[in-house]
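Our platform keeps sequence and structure together, in a single record for each protein. This encoding replaces a full spatial description with a residue-level series of whole-number codes. We quote a single record here, exactly as it is kept in our systems:
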Amino acid sequence: QLQLVESGGGLVPPGGSLRLSCSGSGSTLDAFTIGWFRQPPGKEREGVSCISSTNDASTYYADSVKGRFTISRESAKNTVYLQMNSLEPEDTAIYFCAAAHTTVQNMCITTTYPPVFWGQGTQVTVSS
């Protein structure tokens, strides 16, 4: 059974950076499509970025984060990162990582195949 743990959240001023980590145990993350999702205060959860299993090379970014966020894997550490630069107050949310045996297209673009495994979330607050 795959377990996911997020870390790296915190309070950062506008324009700052954070790197979120999603660490896996119980199974290798390389076999899964991994997604980062966020839930802003009082709003629905939304997809932020996804990366395919290592059989493919697909990534996805929501329009609101393109050019500012980068998703990547470090297989040796069984970890997926979300590097977040030029943070804005609108990025304030609880950030979750999630996983499924499916494609980036299905999990993050058409959302026809929701994630199966979820972490507990990490809070990101962008404020001066």
User: Anything to note?
Assistant: The longest strand covers residues 18-25.
